[in-house]
Specification:
Elements: H1 4-9, E1 11-19, E2 40-44, H2 58-65, E3 69-74, H3 94-106, E4 110-111, E5 117-121, E6 131-139, E7 142-145, E8 148-159, E9 163-167, E10 171-175, E11 182-188, H4 195-210, E12 222-229, E13 236-241, H5 247-271, E14 281-282, H6 293-300, E15 304-310, E16 320-322, E17 325-326, H7 327-339, E18 345-346, H8 357-366, E19 374-380, H9 382-398, E20 406-410, E21 416-421, E22 428-430, H10 450-460, H11 465-473, H12 477-486, H13 492-510, H14 519-530, H15 539-548, H16 553-556, H17 561-574, H18 580-590, H19 597-609
Parallel strand pairs: 3-10, 13-20
Antiparallel strand pairs: 1-11, 1-12, 2-3, 4-6, 5-6, 5-22, 6-8, 7-8, 8-11, 9-10, 12-13, 14-15, 15-19, 16-17, 18-19, 20-21
Helix pairs in contact: 4-5, 7-9, 10-11, 11-13, 13-15, 17-18, 17-19, 18-19
């Protein structure tokens, strides 16, 4: 946990990205995500280009150095030449622009009278063109938290990247169905000073975004980047975070990592430890008889075991920066990303992994390591192994500077891992294929916010507070509004629970994928309920049949009271001495789907009380 002093010195800013519904940002393709087999693939290499100032961005340069091949998967009916970067972009999506202008009005941001679409260099393969199109729409605006106001620095409209399918050290596979989906990006000033305020601000912006009619709903449609720094450190960007519950832990742990790095910087200065000039040793011959499975696998494949010395670093590589995260983890993360290796070995953790004490002693002697010196080993193809060691040496040099500026990804336990250097302004330049946009705010309507909707659902529809919030936040909210307006004879609470809780019950109790239920399935369900063709007691049975593709309304047509009475009479006559519970069980089994349990129980009770007549 952070000390009070660390919390005082903590600064956070967040960037939230929200996908929009409808068509893609620069073409007419739908924003539909696909899971079926793609129709075609395209292979590409990408290279970094200089920005307006003639400088190549450092993050783009790192990606180009990896020399990856990119494979793009597409669909003939939902992706087009714009996504493949074989046709210029069309005009910007006016519906997407309207939605972002609605948000600008909600937060009282200042919209620019003329909007210029820009290209942002991205060479990791996530965009077929090597850049992402983005347009700054507005600046300013404020959200309020319990710990004070948080200013908004920018509101932008940009295109979503491809979806990552798989990757190897030499190749990445992307799918283009997600590429080009409109995104609203909201960035805050670094006004956030505590982990809980960071979580609250994220929730607040998320609620405002979900208030917009044009946004997508559901898992994966909204994510945030969190910028974190403490006094004496540098800004670290944690990319693509989605779990709001984990935000306080992530902020605390990242601040802890930075604090430990600053402590280590001071310790290195006090101990006057200086790195020797980088020198790589080929240790393959020395370790050719090793029984370590990891070394053996590399050597048998004609790979190399390379190493170098870290002067004065003995004991420092195992220094913990976060729970179960050490300086060695920092080294390994940098080597994995820059060279595509599986990891590194270091002297603070050896002997281990099948590497014996005798082999460790031999390596130390070969590298001329003194008692306080450490060493790093990498087993891989020679070129890749050398690149990995260079990455580790570079990271070791950065320990003398404290906290390096970088982009990191979150791990499930709240720690973070290295992704790439923090990009700069060098990656931006104008998009000349899209005309300037002059937004018109006069006809932009401010939508009802989710908080207003929560309150209205409780008063207008008599929903509980929890149910009102559940349905308002759900992707089923528009369908709920449609159904309560159409079927006024049905209780709104029943409609809301059927749309939200019932699918969860089906998934939990019947092990069926209730996510496959469509809005039309629910429309049919409530139509049959309003026509008295089915009863609300058998809603789950109807939805299960719809999921299985076996639904037939004839099976569920409600029997008349006369026919129910006839069936019950036969059951009672055939079981003259049976208790009521047994009669009820037999009746429910025979009349399943034909009448509600309540109707069966009432009619059976009347019959028993009348003496089985």
């Amino acid at each position: 946990m952070l000390t009070k002093m660390q919390q005082t010195n903590l600064k956070c800013g967040i960037e939230i990205h929200q996908q929009l519904e409808g068509k893609k940002l620069f073409c007419n393709c739908p924003t539909q995500l696909r899971e079926d087999e793609p129709h075609f693939t395209i292979k590409r290499k990408l290279r970094a280009v200089a920005g307006e100032g003639g400088v190549i961005d450092v993050a783009a340069a790192q990606e180009q150095a990896r020399n990856l091949t990119f494979v793009y998967q597409g669909y003939k009916d939902t992706t087009c030449l714009v996504e493949a970067d074989c046709e210029p972009p069309h005009e910007i999506n006016s519906d997407a622009l309207y939605t972002v202008l609605q948000f600008c009005k909600l937060v009282q941001a200042k919209v620019y009278p003329v909007i210029q679409v820009m290209r942002k260099t991205v060479v990791d393969g996530s965009n077929t063109s090597g850049f992402q199109r983005t347009a700054l729409i507005a600046r300013g605006g404020i959200i309020t938290t319990s710990e004070g106001e948080v200013r908004l620095s920018n509101i932008s409209l940009e295109e979503e990247a491809c979806k990552n399918i798989s990757e190897t050290p030499a190749e990445r596979v992307w799918r283009m169905d997600r590429l080009g989906i409109p995104l609203i990006e909201i960035g805050t000033e670094p006004d956030i000073t505590s982990p809980l305020q960071c979580q609250e601000a994220s929730k607040r912006i998320g609620i405002l975004l979900r208030s917009l009619p044009g946004v997508k709903r559901g898992l994966g449609t909204i994510r945030q980047d969190i910028n974190i720094s403490i006094e004496g450190g540098n800004r670290i960007e944690v990319k693509g975070f989605q779990n709001l519950v984990m935000i306080p832990a992530l902020v605390e742990l990242e601040a802890q990592r930075q604090s430990e790095l600053l402590t280590l910087k001071q310790e290195l200065a006090e101990r006057k430890i200086k790195l020797e000039e980088f020198k790589v040793y080929d240790l393959s011959k020395l370790l050719e008889h090793s029984t370590s499975k990891m070394l053996r696998k590399t050597l048998d494949a004609q790979g190399k075991v390379l190493g170098f010395k870290l002067t004065g670093f003995a004991g420092l590589i195992k220094r913990e920066l976060q729970p179960n995260y050490r300086v060695g983890t920092e080294f390994s993360g940098r080597a994995k990303v820059k060279a595509g290796v599986g990891g590194i070995f270091h002297s603070d953790e050896l002997p281990n992994y099948g590497i014996t004490a005798e082999e460790v002693a031999s390596v130390r002697e070969e590298l001329d390591c003194q008692e306080k010196d450490a060493f790093i080993l990498v087993a891989a193809e020679q070129k890749r192994a050398k690149l990995a060691l260079e990455a580790v040496y570079e990271r070791a040099q950065e320990l003398y500077l404290g906290v390096p500026k970088e982009v990191r990804k979150d791990n499930p336990d709240g720690t973070t891992s290295y992704m790439r250097p923090l990009p700069g302004a060098a990656r931006m330049y104008p998009e000349t294929d899209v005309p300037l946009v002059r937004p018109n705010l006069r006809n932009v309507q401010i939508p009802e916010t989710l908080e207003q909707k929560f309150s209205r659902y409780q008063t207008q529809y008599n929903l509980s507070k929890d149910l009102a919030e559940f349905i308002a936040k759900s992707e089923m909210m528009p369908l709920f509004e449609e159904l309560v307006g159409k079927y006024k004879e049905l209780k709104p609470a029943f409609i809301a629970e059927t749309l939200t809780s019932t699918p969860l019950e089906i998934k939990r109790n019947y092990n069926l994928d209730s996510d496959k239920l469509t809005e039309d399935n629910f429309r049919d369900l409530f139509l049959y309920l309003s026509q008295d063709k089915i009863h609300k007691d058998i809603v789950i049975d109807v939805l299960i049949d719809m999921l299985k593709g076996t639904f037939d309304i004839k099976k569920y047509a409600l029997l008349s009271t006369e026919k129910i009475h006839q069936v019950l009479k036969e059951i009672v006559q055939n079981n003259p001495n049976a208790p009521f519970s047994a009669l009820m069980g037999a009746a429910v089994k025979q009349l399943e789907g034909k009448a509600s349990g309540k109707v069966i129980s009432e009619e059976l009770k009347k019959m028993v009380e009348r003496g089985h007549k």
